[in-house]
Structure formats: structure tokens, C-alpha cells
Amino acid sequence: QVYLVESGGGLVQPGDALTLSCAASGSIFSITTMGWYRQAPGKERQLVAIITSGGSTTYADSAKGRFTISRDNANNTLYLQMNSLKPEDTGIYYCNAYSRQGKGWGTLFNYWGQGTQVTVSS
Fold this sequence. Notes:
0% of the residues lie in helices and 58% in strands. The chain is mainly beta. The strands form two sheets. Strands 2, 4, 5, 6, 9, 10 and 11 form a seven-stranded mixed beta sheet that branches. Strands 1-3-8-7 form a four-stranded antiparallel beta sheet, with no helix packed on it.
């Protein structure tokens, strides 16, 4: 079992910056890929950025150049640095983690946090 708790959301104005954190606990050594997803008002949950256990990253087009995903494996924490925030960045940001169980290739299990609200408004 993996437990994820997000923090760092808030109310900001366009152009401001926020850094979100996701603290992982439980079977943290089983975690492989982690990511951030956004649920915007009236829209489906979408990928923002992902990062592998080795540090390789992938970003949604809307996040490229403005957001940076990182992870501190020593402290079991995932981060999302968000700069130059826009109103369209508004939504609930969820932390996600894949956990591999079993021998060899194994079986992947998916875990979600409860989310943290980010509101960008003038």
C-alpha cells in the first residue's frame, strides 16, 4: 500500500508561482513512476507531468517551459514547481504513483492522493 498526501495549493494571481508537494508513505520502495494530474472545472483529469524513478520527465504541452516536476527520493517527496501561472491552470492537482509488485516485470498498482486546490484568478 502507498499513501500520498498533497500540499502547497492556494489562491494566486496570474503570473505568480506555486510549488506543490506530495509526501509518499507506506511501501515507498515499490514506487516507480510518479506524476501530477489536474482536474480542471468541468473537465476530465489530465496529465500535467510525470517522472520516473531514474529522473526522466515528461510534460503536457501546457506545462512545458513553466512547470518542473522533481522528486526527492531520500525524503519520499514529489514536487511540482509552477511558474507564470495562468487562469487555465486552475484545478485540483492530484499526485499519482505506480507501485510494482511481484518478481521480475511484476504487476503495477496505481495510487492517488486526495488532491490540492490551485486557483489562479485576477
